[in-house]
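Next comes a single protein record:
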Amino acid sequence: MLMSKTFQYLIVILAIFISASACTVDGSNCKTDDDCSAGLQCKSGGGVFFGGGICMSPSANPIDDSLDTSHFVDSDRSIDSDYTTDSNFPDDTAALPPSDTDNSDTNDDADTNDDSDTNECVIDEDCGQSDEGEWDTCDGFQTACATAGLQTRQLHKPTCTDGVCSVIATTEQRDCARETNDDSCGPVNASEWSTCSFDGKKTRQVTTQTCQDSACTPRTTTEELPCACTNNPSCGAPTYGNWTSCSFETTCASTGEKKREVRTPTCQTNACTIVVSTQTESCFRASTTGNSCGQPSSAAWSTCTNPGSNTCATSGTRTQQIHTPTCQSDECVIVTTTNSQNCALSPPTSCGTPSYSNWSLCSYAQTCSLIGTQTRTKTTPTCQNQSCNGVQTTETQPCGARTTTDVVCGTSSPSPWSACSYVDTCVTTASSSRVVTTQVCNNGTCSGTKQTTEYDWTRCSRDTQHNPCDNGHAFGTCVNGCCNASCPQGQNCLQCQM
């Protein structure tokens, strides 16, 4: 029980200290309105704050002495049982001795009943419900046309602090918006009234400043009133249409004409009418010299020609005449130009006069040939790889008609030699013969044969000296190849042989 009372006294002392030290913060104790933030008032806080005031919204109800504070402390809760063992309290408080009396329960009940009218508490809910004030009007706009602002309200929240209930006042803000389109945001300016128009009206321009999309925007409107004209100037000044574009008579002309409509207000019988006329002025443009004034025309391309001396060139040039209508000194004239381009050439085969060598000697293909041939070299200038080169060829012609009959044209085949044949007994030499068959020409070919007999006197010889001989008239002996018996009287054998 002693611990409970001691703790209660400590709570009271702590509340007095907090109440005396806080005077200028929203929701804290105050003496006058100057101690509170803007928009708050210092109102009596009642016995809870020991006779002091509290800063709160003008619409909020202050806590006074008549406020029932029994809800701040739960009368059925024993402070001793809840806090004597709490390590958060100072050691001297926790060390207070427990009650030794037997009737502790009776004393605790009596103490609890005595504290029922105090502002003791354990949690925030023991102090009551929060008081939320009404939201102020939307305010705090940056400009006259701004649509985004702020709203504020006061919140009074009972709070349990160190076992004592107190009320904390805070200010809550939230965004708010408003519609400013078409709201006035500046002065109105009006021009002087115009002269009376042709339709019996006068006008003036009125400029107002209005909000559009959060910005102050000038807007000009026209006001009009009826009137009657007295003279031409009273109907107003002439109005002019836009100039037409400069019109030129020809494509090459540098001086042209432009027009515009003129509407002149005229007062007739106290009524303005409009007289419409056309105003004309000269206009100019930059020199047109060199500009095209028509569609160009072109002639056919010329044949491809060889511009150089190379007869064998494979590329040449061809030209084309272009006739272009062109502006010169404001007149359209025809300017002729020439286009050229490369083209393909087909060079000739020959690029000069052929030359010839002398004819060769007549030659025959075969031994039996009846006609021969002779040749010469022909050099022909010919285009090759775009160059003129000499190409040589051989020309042939017949020559030398002849007869080749029996001309030997092949091999010869001899027969065997015949036996030696002596004309008489005393002759020492004789001939041997053989037949030789030889291939000869026949009608220009080697198709004929010819036989001849060959005699050889060296193949047969003998010694007949002193051999007996008979000449058919007498017998004798052979002397030097002659039979002496055959020689007439007075001749020897040698003479006889001769």
The first strand starts at residue 29 and ends at 30. Residues 75 and 383 are 137 Å apart (CA to CA). The chain is about 10% helix and 40% strand. Residues 1-28, 45-51, 61-117 have pLDDT under 50 and may be disordered.
